[in-house]
Write a structure and sequence with these properties.
single chain; 426 residues; alpha+beta; Rossmann fold; D-amino Acid Aminotransferase, Chain A, domain 1; 4 domains; five-stranded antiparallel sheet; 22 strands; globular
Length: 426
Amino acid sequence: MINVLVVGGGAREHVLAAACAASPRAGRVLVAPGNPGAAEVATCFPVPTGDTAGLMRLCREEEVDLVVVGPEEPLAAGLSDLLREKGYLVFGPGRAASAVEASKAWAKAFMARHGIPTAGYRAFSCVREACRYVSSHPLPLVVKADGLAAGKGVVVARDQATALAAVERLMVEEALGRAGRTVLIEEYLEGEELSVLAITDGETIVMAPAAQDHKRAGDGDVGPNTGGMGAYSPVPQCPQAWTHDIRLRIIEPAVAGLAAEGLPYRGVLYAGLMVTKTGAKVLEFNARFGDPEAQVVLPRYSGDVLELLWETASGRLHRLRPAWSPLSMVCVVMASGGYPGSYRRGLPITGVEAAAATGARVYHAGTAHGDGGLVTAGGRVLSVVGHGPELADAVSQAYRGVEKISFAGAHYRRDIAGRALAYPGG
């Protein structure tokens, strides 16, 4: 039996904990710090993801066999390295390999070294030079913070004023702290945006089905970027030929390139892609499962998720013959009023049980126990996931679940998977 610790406290970690708990190989399933939803399927410990010493102590005291690191911050801080030094199996790359996400400038240089297609760019640590570049470059442009920004460090600027304001906000106002001290200014790519998750032990690669995220806060892809307002899988706009091309031209060179540079990678490599008229190009790499992509991809795995994580961490992924369900999955994120800006906490939540009774799966993200029951505790509060044989069925079930849930100021997008439903055959 495998005692597993899932590090993190969001909906992604709730999904991982639920999948591990369903495994016949599961011993104890622990989550740190977890949330009220994760506590229904696992034992939660109030250890913050940044408390490395506390997590190490928890592993020792609870006789943990496998650690699955959910969020990007502890990966970038080197938690995986410290755990491996103590003999623990870890699903998640070490600090150096996590630079594919932790530094967009490093990731761009890495892609250039290994011939991985991506958008043209320039990196700047000087405000004047960045502004001068914006003023002389054709629009639209994309302005990105170099460091970790929880999905909120990207601005698509269709006019010069917006681009200059984004540079000012990141580099002068330091709205995202150290993450924005260096900015990337990229060419704008048009096409079909995809999220592709590749699980790898550094040699063997398991390609998960493609998903499509919805980053903008409002319907019709308007408003500021968020950590993700919903996702769906499969993506009917993504034919099998695209998946094959993405593996050959992007995923395999990335995994091989990391190994060649002495950065062995055991975990999931997330490629955020734009499929343009000339083929797929990388928008960003992440060093962990996406959120909300995990909510629609992991439940489609037909095998034992805990076994998949264990064999990846053990370097024996070649032993598995993974398969994925043909079911469609759609996730709708219910967020606090004001998100991704400022928002209130501690607001009562009702209807979660009623939503689950519709058949939808409800994963907790920003929730907590209050005096009178469940309350809001974050920007993205709940992920409501529908499933069915067709995307339309999954969409209907997800929104039936959403309609049962209520908290003051709740907002969510009403067009999740709209592009797919409008696509012939979607």
